[in-house]
């Protein structure tokens, strides 16, 4: 049935009208996270990136805890118990500010907290989750090793029994939050298979030297974990899982947040390019009036719109309990790849200013080079999808 009612005005930054897909609760999450970022982080993030540090990261963690975004999709133990889609929207808004900020929240909630929440004992949950949800304790997740990335089954970190204790030896690499963490969830080979351990970072033999000289994710703490004869009591092991199912389940949680977060980085660059193109004048008119610039803006908007629609679809599937790991791979592969291309195209619109930290574009672009790799490289997600499509494994 046709109608003669006037159409609502068109938002040039939301051509498809995707904001209408959000419920009131989801809009409230977006608004609250965006407000915190605008007040607390956006004015300083370029400087933090340039300096390669987050001043008062513990204070920031507590503010994020007060906002309710740490472990926000988990139930109980001080967690907010929100929907997967609400969590995804929070990740989008966080990464629209910076990938390092979203990484802090993802590692805390979807890796460290989720591991304890899903596979831990009641005592482990009570000891750590309420403090982590409040931002009073920071967690990290030790899986990747210096010589082991995409093939975690080949990890060399080892846990052996010594009486009733466990003793851990090994190295982990590229660990977000490692140098500031109060607790590390560390995965190690045992005689029983891969097991997870809850390791207080003040345990003798544990150290976490910070990794310097990064040109990506500079507003994020990245560390090596060194375990030299780390002795733990018997109850430090995560009791409810043995094998790679444990760490891989956590990675799927984090990848889901990346599906959304990458869209936030893309939105930030798209908006920066739109604004700049309207203000930058060449040959007597704004560059937004030139056909080639408009083609770039339209192509960026198309890919951003499709990526956001995919994120919404996967969020609804996760909320319905029907989301498969292969579908998360589809979202991670597409959305990070397209977000990175949007950032690169935005850089060309800004010209020389595109490499200045006065604008967010080069920061997002270099950050996404890391996001493209962590939580599964593009190659690995391609092979996951290839196996799903053909029934043939090309991993080995």
UniProtKB/TrEMBL annotation:
List the protein's name.
Acyl-CoA dehydrogenase
One GO biological process from the UniProt record?
fatty acid beta-oxidation using acyl-CoA dehydrogenase
The UniProt keywords, alphabetically, are: FAD, Flavoprotein, Oxidoreductase, Transit peptide
InterPro entries membership: Acyl-CoA_Oxase/DH_mid-dom, Acyl-CoA_Oxase/DH_mid-dom_sf, AcylCo_DH-like_C, AcylCo_DH/oxidase_C, AcylCoA_DH/ox_N, AcylCoA_DH/ox_N_sf, AcylCoA_DH/oxidase_NM_dom_sf, Glutaryl-CoA_DH_mitochondrial
The Acyl-CoA dehydrogenase/oxidase N-terminal domain extends over 23-136
- Domain Acyl-CoA oxidase/dehydrogenase middle stretches: 140-230
Q: What cofactor is needed?
A: FAD
The signal peptide annotation in the UniProt record is: none
Instruction: State the Gene Ontology terms under molecular function.
Output: fatty-acyl-CoA binding; flavin adenine dinucleotide binding; glutaryl-CoA dehydrogenase activity
